[in-house]
């Protein structure tokens, strides 16, 4: 796929990706239909790291494959860097790099050959190719001439990231990029992604590591059953969690956890530690502690756990069936 040099550099819209009313329906056995995407609408702001989260089977991969041109949408519109994927498919594809969950490349090519071939497919002139620079950036320069089949799983994933960047797209989509990658390699990958983002690349990330998403993403959209159930700046989204947990150490051993109307849930741990869940829109920590003391218990120590993205994610997707 040849590209028109510089054609996609100036966006026609403010959003890096704009999706409006996107639907995808699959025909299944028995003449019925399965709707994988049901009127999905959101924008990915330029220059951000944007999280796209959801349970298995929620529609994330379908959405990414539509953007990649691998799946045809049923209805709705989608544009990448201002280019409609139907009206300007070549420019849209040139504006995005996608790292899929599956590791896809010829195992008999070396990493440098893999990047050179990919750059050729995108019509990047030889003088403008950055194969060794990209391998250096993902810590694979010393493996440039090794067969790709000899690379570890983490190395192969980093090679996939370099492969997605050969044509210098302004938008990079990472679909579960750290699955099966050890902590050190994961940190190296995120250092590179942050550097790309600081250099102006908009990043879309899907991950099951919610702590990762909370730390990295400026904004997060959550999809459940093919619909967007949340789309907010990360801090605001985390702030939606109403449940809070307080661990109270009491002054004597207990055989059973006490109860009180203000406790959403209470668990006795180790005989003296009460782990109490309460809803902060109904009561505050002081009322919870007072309820403990009303049971005739002395409080020796108190610690709290702030709500995190996992709490919000579970509350928004509870009851969904993963597949």
From TrEMBL:
Keywords: ATP-binding, Nucleotide-binding, Transport. It comes from the Bacteria. Pfam families: ABC_tran. SMART domains: AAA. Gene3D superfamilies: P-loop containing nucleotide triphosphate hydrolases. GO terms for molecular function: ATP binding; ATP hydrolysis activity. InterPro entries: AAA+_ATPase, ABC_transporter-like_ATP-bd, ABC_transporter-like_CS, ABC_transporter_ATP-binding, P-loop_NTPase. Residues 17-250 form the ABC transporter domain. The keyword Transport applies. PANTHER family: ABC TRANSPORTER ATP-BINDING PROTEIN, ABC-TYPE MULTIDRUG TRANSPORT SYSTEM, ATPASE COMPONENT. This is ABC-2 type transport system ATP-binding protein.
């Amino acid at each position: 796929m040849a590209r028109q040099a510089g054609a996609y550099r100036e966006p026609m819209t403010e959003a890096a990706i704009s999706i409006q009313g996107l639907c995808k329906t699959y025909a299944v056995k028995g003449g019925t239909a399965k709707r994988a995407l049901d009127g999905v609408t959101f924008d990915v702001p330029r220059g951000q790291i944007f999280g796209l989260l959801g349970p298995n089977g929620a529609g994330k991969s379908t959405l990414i494959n539509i953007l990649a041109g691998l799946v045809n949408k049923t209805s709705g519109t989608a544009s990448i860097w201002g280019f409609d994927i139907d009206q300007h498919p070549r420019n849209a594809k040139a504006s995005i790099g996608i790292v899929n969950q599956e590791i896809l490349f010829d195992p008999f090519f070396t990493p440098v050959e893999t990047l050179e071939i990919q750059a050729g497919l995108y019509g990047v002139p030889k003088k403008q190719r950055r194969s060794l620079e990209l391998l250096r950036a993902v810590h694979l320069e010393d493996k440039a001439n090794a067969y790709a089949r000899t690379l570890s799983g983490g190395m192969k994933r980093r090679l996939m990231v370099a492969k997605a960047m050969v044509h210098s797209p302004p938008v990079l989509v990472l679909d579960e990029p750290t699955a099966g990658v050890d902590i050190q390699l994961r940190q190296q990958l995120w250092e590179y992604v942050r550097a790309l983002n600081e250099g102006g690349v908009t990043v879309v990330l899907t991950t099951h590591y919610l702590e990762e998403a909370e730390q990295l993403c400026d904004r997060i959209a959550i999809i459940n059953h093919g619909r967007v159930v949340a789309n907010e700046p990360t801090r605001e989204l985390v702030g939606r969690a109403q449940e809070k947990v307080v661990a109270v150490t009491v002054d004597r051993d207990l055989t059973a956890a006490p109860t009180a109307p203000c406790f959403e849930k209470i668990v006795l741990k180790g005989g003296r530690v009460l782990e109490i869940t309460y809803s902060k829109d109904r009561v505050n920590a002081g009322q919870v502690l007072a309820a403990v003391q009303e049971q005739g218990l002395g409080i020796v120590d108190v610690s709290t756990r702030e709500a995190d993205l996992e709490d919000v994610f579970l509350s928004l997707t509870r009851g969904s069936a993963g597949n």
